[in-house]
Amino acid sequence: MPAQKHRTENDNMIDTHCHLDFPQYQGDIGAVIQRAVNAGIDRMITVGTDPVSSAKCVELAREHEAVFAAVGIHPNSTVGVSDADWVEIRRLAREPKVLAVGETGLDYYRDTAPPDAQKDYFRRHIELSRETGLPLIVHCREAYDDCYEILAALERPVHGVMHCFSGSKADAARFAELGMYISFAGPVTFPKAESLREVALSVPPEILLVETDAPFLAPQQHRGKRNEPAFARYTAAAIAQMHSMSLAEIDRVTTQNAVDLFGFERRR
């Protein structure tokens, strides 16, 4: 059943990146979604990490009014991907309520997939984004130079977001110059994350997005516990404080940014 909304018209925001298909939510996914809506998170994008995960995300979007999906293959999952797997991702990208392609990108922090395989599928996702007109959700970890090189070499700019951003102010600025949105998650609330907060402050509000990356990276107020979309409020509050804005202002700006990027109403 669709989650009931308990909020005022102006009290809403969007969790632009979570993983509601993950096993951490098995058994209480309905309650998790309801808590998010009760907290004013009236839309959330659950993001696929491989063909099976992406199909589950699409199914969750079908079942819950507040949930939308993104489909793709995470860079750490690009080893052993078959032609049939990629055909399935391409098919799922045309499903109703699928708002984005990804997450894709490059991750050199882990060595589960060689860089060449990651780059190959990153480029495939970029092409699929172009074909479908859907924005790209980019995962980048300890690979900012290579990720930038691939995006900057495109003949036409790509429309998308650098999710759960962890790079430097210089990295943020150069991706912003490419037309990318920059998204922050729970780590901006961590006491020792002063450098990340400086990066978030350097990003203009008109390209900021808020996410949880749930079930991971719970904000400081719930650190060490399972993260969930309702906790996006804590990240939004931290970013609002950095920018000397009210929570209502940051909600309005980041919600409009998310609507502009993902085009929710076009994919219901």
Outline of the structure:
With 268 residues, the protein is α/β, with parallel strands linked by helices.
**Order of helices and strands, N to C?**
EHEHEHEHEHEHEHEHH
Q: Architecture, CATH level 2?
A: Alpha-Beta Barrel
CATH superfamily: Metal-dependent hydrolases
Binned strand content: 15-25%
In CATH, the topology is named TIM Barrel
Helix tally equals 9
Provide the low-confidence segments as ranges: 1-10
The 3D shape can be described as: globular
Largest sheet: 8 strands, parallel
For the secondary structure, the number of strands is 8
List the domain count as a whole number. Answer: 1
Give the class from helix and strand content and strand pairing: alpha/beta
Question: Order of strands side by side in the largest beta sheet?
Answer: 1-2-3-4-5-6-7-8
The CATH C-level name is: Alpha Beta
Which descriptors apply to this entry?
disordered N terminus, single chain, alpha/beta, 8 strands, 268 residues, TIM Barrel
Account of the protein in words:
- The protein has 268 residues and is α/β, with parallel strands linked by helices.
- The protein has a single domain, classed as TIM Barrel (Alpha-Beta Barrel).
- 39% of the residues lie in helices and 16% in strands.
- The protein has 9 helices and 8 strands.
- It has helices spanning 29-38, 51-63, 83-92, 115-132, 144-152, 169-177, 194-202, 232-242, 247-262; strands at 13-18, 41-47, 67-71, 98-107, 136-141, 160-162, 181-184, 208-210.
- It has an 8-stranded parallel sheet with strand order 1-2-3-4-5-6-7-8.
- β7, α7 and β8 (208-210) form a beta-alpha-beta unit.
- It is globular and about 45 Å long.
